[in-house]
Design brief:
The complex is a heterodimer of chains A (85) and B (441).
Chain A lengths: L2 H4 L1 H14 L12 H4 L5 H13 L3 E5 L4 E5 L13
Antiparallel strand pairs in A: 1-2
Chain B lengths: L6 H6 L7 H14 L12 H15 L4 E3 L12 E2 L1 E3 L13 E4 L9 H14 L3 E4 L6 E4 L3 H14 L15 E2 L13 H11 L1 H5 L9 E4 L8 H4 L2 E7 L4 E2 L1 H8 L22 H4 L9 E4 L2 E4 L9 H5 L4 E2 L4 E7 L13 E7 L8 H17 L6 H8 L1 H8 L32 H7 L3
Parallel strand pairs in B: 7-8, 8-9
Antiparallel strand pairs in B: 1-3, 2-4, 4-6, 5-6, 9-14, 10-13, 11-12, 14-15
Classes of the chains: A alpha+beta (85), B alpha+beta (441).
């Protein structure tokens, strides 16, 4: 595991920065996009760290039912816009 | 009286087949009467609104559903599919109508008290409408609202010991046939393998990191009752390596039309098919012509048998699967979207199915395939499409499996074989002096 990925704070910040930088164009990202942030790491290692960010409330899943994407929590379309609390 | 007039849906009930419209109307009535005194946690008239929005879609010729969303339960990236109606003022009962996928038990074995408990939860916290089972094999619960998701999840996991299934870019809920729990043809215990893989790959089931969906299905014999060869990215089909076991006395009982030995185990006896004819019904139908019946003796050239199961199915009391059993692994089946539908391609002709070592021969193949697909697969690209794009040879390379005749679907239709330098004796370099000794310029 790379130094960046093994450092929780730095990894989280890198993900947030990456997503924020691209937030003008999109709010949801494919899992493969994380490879751009952690190019030296195996995807299964990246998965563990990224999914921890979901349980920590930094990221959230968006699913169409067939495909799942990741986004910053609160970014893009939310439950509220569907009339939900 | 129904809440919404549904003349177009009513017409669907007039056909010769059972109609889902009748089922929904029945459910709407049950909820309206509420004789069981259920404390409904979502609108009581949700099913009536469901019928209403469907009627409107027929009228308009377009859907009024939106699907997808952020809904889910804590820590899980699958199992819930958000559904919203785009006409909430007309149909407030289905404004939110999320689907939940629940992992079905292996072999779909249920006890009635489990089914009662499941429907009790769903009647209270959802619409009461189910799909037993969805195409993936899961129990599908159709229609609930976001605040009820965690409640349902808690009750399922704590009271029924049942988990959510897979959806999205996850491993989908593995599905299997009844296997050796009931079937004499089973070459391995498909229930045990399905249960093991479900537990072993919990992370892949619930935390999405694949390029797209990935399905496991297990058929314990080549009859393929769950059609894993067509329905799963990785299919485990039971097979055997030794000879089909023959009881010659029983073969002759079939030939003599003994009533205790009905062909096909009596499966088609509702019609008079005439006398059983072993030549016509077994020998001539063998796809590789590897059988013959002479002097009251059935002979099988097992080296040419493709395990089609036809002879065994036709004379089950006379022929049995061999004793050296395991499974074949096929990969890459998928439904259309990109490139059209594909059947699975044989990757591993035979592998042992050994619970004692945690099926290590199987998990090794699975994880090698996943590592490749996760690394190389494009977003929303199924394994079968990646195999088409990069080639079956690449798959063999990443899984460390040597090419075998069984990998060749159509021999000699393609004369080109791409050798790599390390596969050729002496590599690409040659001794020109030595060469010129035998070949003049």
């Amino acid at each position: 595991m790379s130094e960046l990925l093994s450092n929780k704070e730095a990894a989280t910040q890198a993900v947030v920065d990456f997503m924020t930088k691209k937030s003008k164009n999109k709010s949801k990202f494919y899992f493969n996009d994380f490879q751009d942030i952690f190019p030296d790491d195996k995807l299964r290692e990246i998965k563990k760290v990224v999914n921890k960010m979901v349980t920590d409330g930094v990221l959230e899943y968006w699913s169409s039912g067939s495909t799942t994407m990741y986004g910053l929590k609160g970014a893009g379309k939310q439950h509220g816009s569907e009339g939900e609390a | 009286m129904a809440k919404h007039e549904t003349p177009l849906l009513d017409q669907l009930e007039s056909g010769p087949w059972p109609s889902f419209v009748s089922d929904l109307k029945q459910q709407a009535e049950v909820r309206a009467k509420n004789e069981a005194g259920v404390e409904f946690q979502m609108p009581q008239d949700t099913v009536e609104d469901l019928l209403g929005v469907l009627e409107l879609s027929y009228k308009h010729g377009r859907t009024h559903w939106k699907h997808g969303g952020i809904v889910g339960v804590f820590g899980y990236g699958g199992g819930v599919i958000g559904r919203y109606c785009d006409q909430p003022k007309l149909f407030p009962g289905v404004e939110h109508f999320h689907t939940m996928r629940i992992a079905q038990p292996c072999g779909k074995y249920y006890k009635t008290d489990f089914l009662r408990a499941l429907t009790k939860i769903w009647d209270m916290r959802g619409s009461g409408v189910t799909n037993m089972h969805g195409a993936t094999g899961d129990i599908i619960l159709l229609g609930t609202i976001t605040p009820q998701l965690e409640e349902i999840f808690y009750e399922l996991t704590h009271n029924l010991n049942q988990d959510l299934g897979g959806s999205g870019s996850n491993l989908r809920t593995p599905a299997d046939c009844l296997g050796s729990s009931r079937c004499q043809y089973a070459c391995y215990d498909s229930n045990a393998l399905c249960h093991f893989l479900t537990n072993n790959y919990q992370d892949e089931l619930h935390r999405p990191a694949f390029p797209y969906k990935f399905k496991f299905k297990m058929d314990a014999c080549p009859n393929g009752c769950v059609a894993s060869i067509a329905r799963s990215d990785m299919s485990f089909i039971g097979t055997w390596r030794d000879a089909i076991k023959i009881d010659q006395d029983a073969v002759n009982k079939y030939v003599e039309n003994d009533a205790a030995y009905p062909a096909n185990a009596g499966a088609h006896k509702g019609r008079d098919w005439g006398q059983f004819d072993i030549e016509k019904e077994v020998i001539a139908l063998c796809p590789t012509k590897c059988m013959k019946f002479e002097n009251k003796t059935l002979k099988i050239d097992n080296s040419n048998c493709t395990r089609c199961m036809h002879c065994i199915n036709t004379m089950p009391r006379a022929l049995r699967i061999g004793d050296d059993r395991g499974c074949s692994i096929l990969v890459g089946a998928k439904a259309p979207i990109v490139d059209g539908a594909q059947m699975g391609s044989l990757l591993v002709p035979f592998v042992e199915v050994n619970a004692d070592n945690d099926y290590e021969a199987i998990t090794e193949v699975i994880e090698n395939v996943w590592d490749w697909w996760m690394e190389e697969g494009k977003n929303r690209e199924r394994l079968g499409e990646l195999i088409m794009r990069q080639g079956f040879q690449k798959l063999l390379e990443v899984t460390g499996i040597k090419a075998q005749p069984q990998h060749v679907a159509y021999p000699r239709t393609n004369p080109y074989i791409f050798w790599k330098e390390d596969e050729v004796t002496g590599g690409w370099e040659r001794d020109v002096v030595e060469y010129r000794k035998h070949h003049l310029r």
